[in-house]
Amino acid sequence: MLNQPRPESCQKIRRLLIADDHLIVAEGLARICSNLADTIELVVSGEQLLRSVRRSPPDLVIAETALPLISGLDAMRVAKSEGFAFPFLFLTRHRDAAEAAFAMRRGAGGYLSKASDEAELLQALAVVWAGGRYVSPWVVASGGCLDPALSHGLSGTQVGILKQLGQGLRAKEIGYARGLSTRTIEHHKFVMSRKLGVHGTVELVRKAREIGVI
Which one-letter DSSP state was computed for residue 44? Predict the structure, then answer.
C-alpha cells in the first residue's frame, strides 16, 4: 500500500460527516481530519446520520458500521435509495472480512478496522475522496474481498485502462476507445503508478499482473 496520494494533495473536502456512537472516537477522528475539511459534523447514531444528510448533504461520510438505532450500513443503503451519491468510508471496531465484503458490494467507498493507524486512515481518505475504493490489506488476505484492485485503491475505470495496457494498446488508442483525451489516460497511468509504487508502463502492467488486477 505504498505511494498512495495523501488527502493534502487533493481538493479539500467541503463538508465531512463523522458518525460514531463513541464521541471520544469521533472527536479524535475530527482532529485527524481537521485540516482536510472546511466543516466537520459529528453524530452518534444512524438516525442522526440520515437526519444530517437530509438537512445538508456531506461530501464524504466516515461511519462506524454498528451504529445504534440504524446501523451505518443501513444508513448508507437508505441514503443511496434517496439519491445521495457521496462516498461512505467505514471505520469499524469489528475486524470482520465478511462484513467488509458485504459493505463493498453494497457500494461503500472503503472499509477499515479501528486497529488501523492514522497513516492508513489518511491513505484511505485520499483514495475514497479521489473516487477510488479502499479496503485494508488484511481483508484481501483473509479472502473476505476477492477483488485485489480495492486494496490498492484502483477505480473501475483504472482497472479497465490497465487491462487495455496489458493488451498492448497505447494511451492514444485507449483514449479513443473510451472517449477520453490522451492526456487523461496518461494522468490515470501516473496515478496508478503512484498507487502501485512503480514507474513506467511496463512496470505498471507487470505489477498489475502480479497482484491479480489483470
Answer: S
